[in-house]
Amino acid sequence: MTDAINSASTPKKKVDFKGVLTQLGSLLALFILCVILTIATPNFLTMTNFMNILRQTAINSFISAGMLLALITAGIDLSVGANCVLCGCVMGALANKLQVTNSFVLILAALATGLLVGLANGLLLTKLHLPHPFVSTMGMKLVLCGLALLVVNSQTVANFPEGVTALGSINLFKTKGYSGFPLAFLVVIIVFIIFHFFLTRSALGRKIFCVGGNPEAARLAGINSDNVLISVYTISGLMCAIAGIVLVGRTGVANPAAAMEPYDSDAIAACIIGGASFMGGKGTMWGTIIGALMISTIRNGLNLLQASNDIQNIVVGLVIIGAVCIDVYRGKMEERARRLATK
Amino acid sequence: MELRNITKRFPGVIALKNMTLQIKPGEVHGLIGENGAGKSTLIKVLTGAYPADEGEIFVGGQKRNFKNPNDAKLAGVGCVYQELSTVKMLSVTDNIFMGNTIKKKKSPLLDYATMHRKAHDLMLSLGEDVDVKKACGTFGMGIQQLVEIARALVLNAKLIIMDEPTSSLGEKEVDQLFKTIRNLKKKGVAILFVSHKLEELFEICDSVTVMRDGEHVFTDDIKNIDNDRLIRAMVGHALSEQYPKVRGKRGTEALQVKNLWEGGVFQDINFTAYYGEILGFAGLVGAGRTEVFRAIFGADPLDGGEVYINGKRVQIKSPKDAIRNRIAFLTEDRATQGLVPSMSVRTNLILASMKKFQHGPWLDDATIEKTSEKIVQSLKIKTSGLDEAVGQLSGGNKQKVVIGKWLNTAADIYIFDEPTRGIDVGAKVEVCNVMNSLVQRGKCVIMISSELPEILGMSDRVIVMRSGKIMAEVDANSDHFNQEDIMKAAWGGTLQ
Fold first, then answer.
1. Most buried by CB count within 10 Å: which residue of A201, B4, B190, B261?
2. How far apart are CA A7 and CA B384, in angstroms?
């Protein structure tokens, strides 16, 4: 009996240690990337630039948080970018066409739009039994792109009240010569902490992992997988709305054409670099924030090196493929080690 | 075709021990044995899916070494599996020539004219005049099976293995299949006919080999064999293992089902399980036992019938409903249905009872930790810690985690499906003891098992199923409570 107690409690630290190592791995990669960029361009290692990176990371971070949930359930949400832009455009349409100037109403409209889109994604997947969220969310992406153009008559709209743009534009602790800490990133940190506890300590969070790890076992254990999946896509939609509000604040405008920007692949990349897997059941908030920072650091560095958008996309694309390769090989190595250990 | 002294080992078990088998050209050779007697392993060795560890295979007097399925195919061994492997969207021709296409001379293009003609001729020789250009899926199971036979014949198969070929066929299709088999016989093709239906063996086979525990028991001409001899040979006279049976006190009705049916799967299922007893469900693999309980548990939809718990009619539409009605279902396939392998022991233990550990939306980690440690201790789960991924545990410990998961739900009715399959002897005894203690605490236990000694060793009452129907109900005090009689019922015999 005492053996059982001992064996149940002692090696716990070892497991944590390994987990920490994995997390440190991605942090280390980010650090190496920063060192390389510092050497490559003198403009990289400045406080202003670092704050810029955080500003650029904010949008992707919000989207990645939702994407991570979808990936953990072995799903995917390809409609995130279009959803995020649509939320901005809905606010733009309300502000310009209907002359709504109340920031609170506008923000509420954006959140409702994102939430409803996410809910629709979840319902399509679970109630219409589409084979994979790839299908429903890819279709949804095009629908939303069209809707974004439609609500603002294909025009870029501006004139947002300050209350709406605050989240994306305010900088804290501004001093002379220091651009200040972006409010949006502070919110990212808060949201990520909440998500961390949600994923690790709440019943729904645990169910998300279980549905991702083995949907049949979860169903036979009485977990309503449909409800879990609907919540996941709804939360993802809500995060897109927040990202959309930040986007409007950062740029001051809502541009419907941005719906085709690679927001979805940047978010997927952030999650995968952070240790999530397309097979589901894996992923952490900590890893995801590192992944998101990695993506924006790469884009920022390439910008400073005066690489054009096309080069950036090529590099980010290769990084995604590389990260998935590492994930696959890591899995294979672990399995091999396990096999050898049992022999 | 001849097999000499074939031995095949798997980690921890010997699946085949010095197995010998001789099949003459133009002979229909029956192969039977209990669940787990080693038939499937033998088929896999014959088709090259598993290389044998020891022994020799001769085809037409020549020694052959089957390293992979292709070697077996080239040597003329074809196989028709129980589950059809035709591609339903492709034409009959495409299916027959799959992996073996004919190309036009000096061209990379396929010669469909020749293939269609040959395919049509082949199907005709098997007794079916079909449009070979039509998709395979448009035909019935019988014809699709012929397509599989034709696929073997295209490769000049000298031996065709048929693994329970009649299990998915209707009566007419079975007649058609037997006609085809007789045709093949005339052409000198040998057939190894694996079946769970004794009457079919007597109808079609020339000789029969019985296997038990991976060993050859006897081979004889069908003329010299009768039902009883076959069943005795399959059961053997091995002393039944000792099971730590503790009797409980039979209480009131726990679960009663009336006229349960699911189209094509099972019908007329009526039984009552009581508190304080273990009700065993015996039968051959595929008899429909698991399906009955999956339906009762709400995992599969029922087509009709009534379910009563504690005498009250209940509607169970999902596993969630079943758990609410205090039913626990320990599925036979732990890895795919019972556990989330990537998650920790701790999480798997609370998988079915998360509500109990919730404060609002949050999980009460302290209580989970305490409860989990208690379960790990009492079930003696060997793990490096509560955070270890369940996928890393051994089979026996995985099963214990599944048991722990259901004990956490505080259910009243426990359905154990093949609870000791694939776990070591020590863990087996422990699993049996869990069932004992449940019964002693007045719970109702239903145990589906394909191992007769286990059924006899643990049950207070046994229900025998075959082909989706209940064949017999045997009380532990009855004269029929022995391996031969239960086996007889499982193979379709009646008990007087």
1. B190
2. 5
